[in-house]
Design goal:
By secondary structure, the protein is an all-beta fold. Helices cover 0% and strands 51% of the residues. The chain has no helices and 11 strands. Strands 2, 4, 5, 6, 9, 10 and 11 form a 7-stranded mixed β-sheet that branches. Strands 1-3-8-7 form a 4-stranded antiparallel β-sheet, with no helix packed on it. It starts with a strand and ends with a strand.
Length: 128
């Protein structure tokens, strides 16, 4: 498994932006794996927000994130970033990054059960 550390969460107002970052470390190269951001609000299930394939060629977004969020990765710095714009109160949650353990696949999976490494989460609160 890998070690993932998220950062960048905070308390913002509706309409503001935030940039979340996830730092990867581990024996296996970061460049092998698709990565994703998930979020979980109190009393709700953890759900995928966005994902990116190992080479950054393919990205995928939940409907709630389309046109507002952007996922990118830096395979030199071993980081994956989630740029969140036009935030709304419904975006308030604990945000996690996660690693898909499959190597060099050009597919983004959406179930948390399919990811093997998780960070501790970074909280995002959007006030109206």
């Amino acid at each position: 498994q890998a070690q993932l550390v998220e950062s960048g969460g905070g308390i913002v107002q509706a309409g503001d932006s935030l940039t979340l970052s996830c730092a990867y470390s581990g024996r296996s190269p970061f460049t092998n794996y698709a990565m994703a951001w998930f979020r979980q609000a109190p009393g709700k299930e953890r759900g995928v927000v966005a994902g990116v394939t190992w080479n950054g060629a393919i990205t995928s977004y939940a409907d709630s994130a389309k046109d507002r969020f952007t996922i990118t990765r830096d395979n030199v710095k071993n980081t994956v970033t989630l740029q969140m714009d036009s935030l709304i109160p419904e975006d308030s949650a604990l945000y996690y990054c996660a690693r898909d353990p499959r190597v060099l696949v050009n597919q983004i999976r959406t179930s948390p059960m399919q990811y093997d490494s998780w960070g501790q989460g970074t909280p995002v609160t959007v006030s109206s």
